[in-house]
Every structure is written in structure tokens, then in C-alpha cells.
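Following up on my earlier message about oxa(dethia)-CoA. Here are the inputs again, as you asked, copied directly from the submission form:
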Amino acid sequence: MNKKAKIIGTGSYLPQRVLTNRDLEQMVETSDEWIVSRTGMRERRLAAPSEYTSSMGASAARAALASAGLESNQIDFIIVATLTPDYIFPSTACLIQHALGAKRAGAVDIQAACTGYLYALAFAKGLIETGVYQNILVIASEKLSSITDYKDRSTCILFGDGAAACIVSTEGSGPSIEGVRLGADGEQSELLMMPAGGCRKPASIDSVQGGEHYIKMAGNEVFKHAVRRMESASKECLELVGLKEEEVAWLIPHQANIRIIDAMAKRFEHLPSDRVFKTVGKYGNTSASSVGIALDELIKEGLAQTGENILLTAFGGGLTWGAAVLRFAPFRDCSEGTV
Ligand code: UT7
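Thanks, got it. Here's what our run produced:
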């Protein structure tokens, strides 16, 4: 049997500009108190006008390559998960391949909204374990500010920009990808979407004036699906890899809302609350990048110990959802103290 796929390096990138709840109070009728109590968010990052999904993704990728000790010409394939590509085509993956000088690599975008990182991880695991490739660069990157309506208080408080990356390989050292479970329900596609800009409704004066190039979300409905689907995907994934709930050391849920995270955490009653990793307060919801950024931070903060099981779970438009179990091992440079 082929060797199990491992994550041998991670990286992330957050733009410098901070958008606080106080800033949002100046933009829409809202309050810091409402945002904190309903979402747990205090601030989020916004990309500069000259920063794009591709440039943020390339920065995260460089950090992941450095963490794995690889050069870009050692990458065989690049998968980019995003719902805010630089262009409809060419793919953002091709732009990043060029930016990195990863000349040997094939490159493709995938779109699974906020579940994108887990979908990309699953594809990478499959391609690695079947021996198709040796080193795959997985990137999730989002410039959500480019499709957020800063006049709509029900959505603009939620979203932030940022990117995450990891290298999936059979060689080297790092957390093994024990199993991945993915799901989707296209019947609920209208709960969370951007109505215009695709072939059904190409950009027009009407679509622009109607605000149809922005994220539209039925927040309450999405909330209920999010909790239910992340719980079921997580439990199915644990069953798939033969683990009991009490064997989970860390839970990294999609950072959509602190109330969703808390509701999820309650369903894992053995897990102390400080084992549920949260970045939602400082970065908001960065869609596909969210669990990848959190995983990078958990590892770089040195919190995970060898042999611990890390459960990742995400949920998003589509609807899509998923979960993955990692078994932690340090990256190759851990012993050098430079993880
Ligand atoms: O990443 C993909 C997954 N995304 C999610 O999972 C997001 C899921 N949804 C949510 O996180 C929450 O539904 C929201 C944060 C979007 C909204 O929170 P909520 O507790 O569900 O509020 P609500 O939509 O039920 O609205 C309650 C009230 C409404 O006023 P009325 O109708 O009761 O008078 C809203 O108009 O709060 C009002 N409201 C606000 N008030 C102050 C909505 N947004 C705001 C706001 N500031 N920003």
C-alpha cells in the first residue's frame, strides 16, 4: 500500500489593514456590542487595492514552502480553493504558479466556498496516495472584500481577507491526513450565493445597480445547516478513521461565527473549550482560508503535540461541508526551533 499523505509545511498570509467593529459602526447601522455578542468578531483584515487572491495565496505558499524546506520547482501540482478568483479565467492557480516560478507544476482552481480548503486537501491526499504526484501545494485564498456589500449590515460585518497554504507529500515529516469526509447539497444553493457575474446573469448595468455582484446570505438558515452539517461530517470522519470523540485533542471549525463554533463544541462534550481553536475574533470569516489559517496558527504556536488528533471541519455555500482528521507530527525544522 502507498504511504499516507502528510502535511509537511504550512503557511498563511493576512493583509495588514484592520477593519474594526468601530470602523463598521461608521459604515452601517450596527454596534460593536451587537457584532461581538452575535458573532464573536472584533476585527477582520482587508486586502489593499493592489493585493489580490493570487498575491495573498502566493505569500501563504512561500511561507508553506519555507516551512517544508522545499523549492517551488519541487512542486508537482497546485490546487487553489477560492470563491474570489482574480479572474473567471485564467485560474488563480496558474497566476500563482507563475508568481512562484513553479514551472514543473500543473495548476487548477476548485470552488467549494468555505469548505474549499478541505476539498483541496482531499484531492491532494488522493493524488498523493495513488502515486500520481509527490508534492502538492494546496492554497486557499480569498479577497472577500471584493464581493462584500459594505451597505449590507447583515453580511459586511462577517467577512475578511486572507490566505492559507500547505504542502501535501509522502516524504518528509508533519501531520498525516488520516481521513477526509466531504458532502454537498445543491438543493440549498440559493441560501448563500452571488447572483450575477456567471453565465446565467453576466455583468450588466442592471446587475451592478441591483447589487447582484455581492454575497447574499439567508443568515439564520445557513446558521442551522452549518452546525448540523459540521457535526455530522465530523462524526462520520471520526468513524471513517476509527477514532472515538474523546480521542480528539483539537477541534478547528470553520470560523464563521463564535455561536456556530460554540454550538459545535457543545456536541463534543469531552473536549475542553480551550481545545477548540478560534481565530474568528481577529480575522472574521475568511471563507476557504479560514480552517487553513487556524491550522497554521495552531501549529506555529506549538500547541499540538506529537500523536494528537486534530479534527478540521468546515461548511459553506453550495451548500458544501466537510471534515478531516490529522494526526500531528512536527515539521522537519521543528528540532531547529523554527517551525
Ligand atoms: O461562511 C459560510 C457560513 N456562514 C455562516 O455560517 C453565517 C451564518 N449566520 C450567522 O452567522 C448569523 O445568522 C448572522 C450573524 C449573519 C446574523 O445573526 P442572527 O443572530 O442570526 O441575527 P438575525 O439575522 O436573526 O437578525 C436579528 C436582528 C434583525 O433585526 P430585527 O429584524 O429583529 O429587527 C437584523 O436586522 O439583528 C439585525 N441585524 C443587525 N443589527 C445590528 C442584522 N445585522 C445586524 C448588524 N448590526 N450588523
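One observation from looking it over: The longest helix spans residues 219-241. Hope that helps, and feel free to reply on this thread.
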